[in-house]
Amino acid sequence: MTPCKSLAAATFLLGMLAMPAAVAADLPPLAHTLTVQVPQAAPALRLKDIDGTPHDLAQLRGKVVLVNFWATWCPPCRREMPSMQRLKTVLAGEAFEVWAVDVGEDADTVLAFTSQLDLAPDFPLLLDTRSRAMQAWNVKGLPTTYLVDQQGRIVATAVGGREFDHPALVASIRALLAK
Q1: Where residue 138 sits, what CATH number does that domain have?
Q2: pLDDT of 29
Q3: Domain tally for the chain?
Q4: Which of 29, 74, 77, 171 has the greatest number of C-beta atoms within 10 Å?
Q5: Is residue 54 part of a domain?
């Protein structure tokens, strides 16, 4: 490679490294709504978490569950993760759970990401390494979130990043908890 091409390549790479910070400053705010839908039975969801512990959504009947499909490489997924933890904290003691289903990645990748967060999630980080759950739940893009009611039915969805602890979203979930 000639010196000019090396310099051009280095300049391009430095520009690419600097771009995420500039882009992050220009990102739109995360949304704070869910789309209510006619209740439909949630597909089965049986996955292991990053520690290898199995989890089964069917065992959470009687609780409202926020099921979020995400990946560490997805910018809105990364942005919304802290708000899921804050939501879990706000609704502590209520019949509410948060499950974050990582799609296509391994436990080490997920742990590397969560170790960078100010507050590590205390809800299950489930691994869908082969994307089978993603297919069963008909996820078309990441992040995608489903709100499952006490009867195990999907009652609301959201595609794209959300600020889960926004007062409007918290109020929606509390209204579902009161039913």
Answers
A1: 3.40.30.10
A2: 86
A3: 1
A4: 77
A5: yes
